[in-house]
Amino acid sequence: MAFNPLNWLLGLFSLDIGIDLGTANTLVNVRGKGIVINEPSWVAIDKRSRQLLATGLEAREMVGRTSGAIVVVRPLHDGVISEFEITEAMLEYFIGKVHEQTVVPLPRPRVVIGIPCGVTEVEKRAVYDASMSSGARETFLIEEPVAAALGAGLPIGEVRGSMIVDIGGGTTEVAVMAMGGVIVSRSLRVGGDEMDEEIVQFVRNKYNLLIGERIAEQVKWNIGSAFPLPVEKTVEVRGRNLVTGLPESIEISSVEVREALSSSTQVIVNTIKDALDEVPPEIVADLMDSGICLAGGGSLLLGLAERLSDELNLRVWVAEDPLTCVVRGAGMVLEDFPGLSRYLVGLERGSTRHS
Ligand code: ADP
Ligand code: MG
C-alpha cells in the first residue's frame, strides 16, 4: 500500500485494538504494540450489590474458594455471551487497562473483535453491543476461524484451499477456506471445558473421588492425550472421597485420562470428518498438500495432531502459539485495514439484542 501521510498521522492518535473474547481467555492486541492483555475470562462478583470484585487472573484464583456472598463466573458459554452485563463489565475493565497503559490520553478505540462461526444475529449483536458500550468508538466483527487462520499465517486469500480447526474452552470451530471465503464450516459446542468435566466424572465414577475442575484441567494439561504417548505418565490428584467424606489423594495414569477424554476427542474427530465430507473434491486435493492447521488452547492436548492425522489421512499441524492466533489475526486486519477488511462480517440492520 502507498504511504499516506494523513493516515499515518491519524494512526498515531488513534488506538486500534483487536480482541479475542474467548470462553476461556480474553486477549487484547494493540496496533503497533502487540498483545497487551492475555487473561482468563473470569469475573468475581458480589452477589448482593452485583459489584465487580475482580477480573481475569485475579478472579480465576478465587474459583472454588469463595464464600456464599461472592460468585466467580465466566460470562461466556459455548462461545457466546450468556451474561451480557458481566461481559460488558469485563471488556470495560480490559479496555480501561489498555488506556491506562498509554502515555497520552487517546480517543476511544476502534475495535476488531472475534465471533464464533454460525452464531445467531442476536448473539452477534450482543458482542457488538458489549464492545460499543465498554468504550469502543467503532466495532468490527470477524469470524474466529477466519481470524485464527490469518493469525496462523494460512494463505486464505489464495485460490488454494486451507483448513483450520480452532479448539477453545467452550467450542471447536472448523472452517475450510478458499479465495478469502469460508466454503464449509462447523461449530461444535465441545472443547477443553468438556474435557475437564469428563476427567471429573471419570475420577468420580472410578475412584469415588470428587475433584475440582481446576484440578481436572491441570491433569489434562500435564498428562491428557488423544493418542498413545511414547512414555505413559502418572500424576497425583487430590479430592474428597465421596464414601468416607475425607480428603484423599490417588494416582492416575495418562492411559486412564485418555480413556476419560475419549468421547470428547472422538466427537471432535467426527465433526472434522463431517466437514471434510462436504468439501468439494478440488479443495480436498489442495488439503492433501496444505493439511489441517490446529489453533486454540485445546490443540495443545498431547497427541491430538497425531490422532487426527491418523484418522483423517491428512497432515495435521499445530499453529505457532495457538492460543494467540485469533487475536493476532484481528490485529492483522487493523494493520492492513484496506487489504483485509473484506474478512469482516456485518450485522443485519434492525437486529436487536433483546429478543
Ligand atoms: P477460548 O477461545 O474458548 O477462550 P482458548 O483457545 O483460550 O479458548 O483455549 C482454552 C482451552 O485450552 C482450555 O480448555 C484449556 O484447558 C485448554 N488448554 C490450554 N493449554 C492446554 C494444554 N497444554 N493441553 C490441553 N489443553 C490445553
Ligand atoms: Mg477462541
Summarize the helices and strands and which ones pair or pack.
Layout: H1 5-13, E1 16-21, E2 25-30, E3 34-40, E4 43-46, E5 52-55, H2 57-60, E6 70-73, E7 76-77, E8 80-81, H3 84-100, E9 110-115, H4 121-133, E10 138-143, H5 144-151, E11 162-167, E12 172-178, E13 181-188, H6 192-207, E14 209-210, H7 213-223, E15 234-241, E16 247-253, H8 254-260, H9 262-277, H10 281-290, E17 292-295, H11 304-312, E18 316-318, H12 325-335, H13 337-340, E19 344-345
Parallel strand pairs: 1-9, 9-10, 11-17, 17-18
Antiparallel strand pairs: 1-2, 2-3, 4-5, 4-6, 7-8, 10-19, 11-12, 12-13, 14-15, 15-16
Helix pairs in contact: 3-4, 5-12, 6-7, 9-11
The chain binds adenosine-5'-diphosphate and magnesium ion (MG).
Overview of the molecule:
The structure is a single chain. The chain starts with a helix and ends in a 10-residue tail after the last strand. The model has no long low-confidence stretch (mean pLDDT 92). The longest helix is centred in the first third of the chain and has 17 residues, at 84-100. The chain has 355 residues and is an alpha+beta fold. It has helices spanning 5-13, 57-60, 84-100, 121-133, 144-151, 192-207, 213-223, 254-260, 262-277, 281-290, 304-312, 325-335, 337-340, and strands at residues 16-21, 25-30, 34-40, 43-46, 52-55, 70-73, 76-77, 80-81, 110-115, 138-143, 162-167, 172-178, 181-188, 209-210, 234-241, 247-253, 292-295, 316-318, 344-345. Strand 4 (43-46) and strand 5 form a beta hairpin. It has 13 helices and 19 strands. The strands form 5 sheets. A 6-stranded mixed beta sheet has the order 3-2-1-9-10-19, sandwiched between helices. Strands 13-12-11-17-18 form a 5-stranded mixed beta sheet, with helices on both faces. The structure holds adenosine-5'-diphosphate and magnesium ion.
